[in-house]
Specification:
Mean pLDDT of chain A: 71
Strand order of the largest sheet of chain A: 1-3-2
Order of helices and strands of chain A: EHHEEHHH
Oligomer: homodimer
Radius of gyration of chain A: 23 Å
Shape of chain A: elongated
Largest interface: A-B, 60 and 60 residues
Largest sheet of chain A: 3 strands, antiparallel
Chain lengths: 158, 158
DNA sequence: TATTGACCTTAACTTTACTTGAGGTTTTAG
DNA sequence: CTAAAACCTCAAGTAAAGTTAAGGTCAATA
């Protein structure tokens, strides 16, 4: 009878740790990316006797969050910040995740809003024939320029 | 009486070409970025006798589109594709812009949809306590995995 | 006219997010 | 037991989107 890496063939024991290859396969990210995320502090692992990485199951949740956030353009550094609010010592529970998700929801809502404005402005402005950007909301959907300090950036200084 | 670079102080003659510095100031992007965009085929210029760049006014429209698209995460290569549908030989008219905007509208709608799904999934899933990603829509909002070929990437193969 | 400010080119550097390769160890399967 | 598959580290390479620097030219003005 052959033995599987962890507990025999067909093992679905949720308490068993995962190898890096298993995490890669199940999450859809490359092993090299997992190494990279670990280096950046986005995920964690411990080592077995042979110095190989072992992961808790909930690393899959973390990776899900990482990939989701990336899909909407959040840089890894910000994701790391958000994830750092999760507890290290114990497995995060649903309350932890929910708390963390509040920040994401805000961000998502903001992004959706920006996109929607942009789309509407695009519809109304792109064909308007104005040659000046002076009043063109396309260039400045919502409030993006206000973050860059004062100065009439788009307005002819003459 | 002093003379300005083009037609005297306070000139607002819309028919006059712009220098790279003027474009930079009015669009809010660095001169180096303008060089870079030109190199990538996103914008165009001609040269004066002294080999300095001169721009048509409508380069400002192009830059507005470039910045807007970047704000929502579209890579420059895609922006270049879209912009290439505008005519080179004559100044784009509102019909040209409108035509081009159709593609963006589709893309924007798709992005908005993806984000909205992600947000809703986040609300319903993040606190659900599921330890497996098997059915977790967070990891796979909409149809993103389907682009990567077949194979049950997220599902335990055992 | 002379000097500054704006411009030119080319090359190298930066950051983010990874991938690839080299060279070596561990684990699993037959 | 042994070969293959999976894993390890570290260094270097890649792509995108620019920025910075060096060395030189052009243009506007006091």
């Amino acid at each position: 009878m052959k033995k599987n890496r962890q507990g025999g063939k067909g093992c679905k024991d949720v308490t068993q740790p995962l190898t890096v290859g298993q995490v890669a396969k199940r999450s859809g990210v490359a092993v090299s990316a997992l190494h990279f995320y670990e280096q950046k502090g986005l995920i964690k692992s411990w080592r077995n006797q042979g110095n190989q990485r072992r992961y808790h199951r909930d690393v899959l949740r973390r990776i899900a969050v990482i990939k989701s956030a990336q899909q909407v353009g959040v840089p890894l550094s910000e994701i790391a910040d958000a994830l750092s609010s999760l507890p290290d010592s114990r497995a995060p529970n649903s309350g932890d995740w929910a708390k963390m998700s509040q920040a994401w929801l805000q961000d998502l809502n903001h992004r959706i809003e920006t996109l929607t404005k942009l789309r509407d402005n695009l519809s109304s402005c792109i064909g308007c024939g104005c040659l000046s950007l002076q009043n063109c909301r396309l260039r400045n959907p919502g409030d993006s320029l206000s973050e860059q300090g004062s100065g009439a950036r788009l307005i002819d200084p003459d």
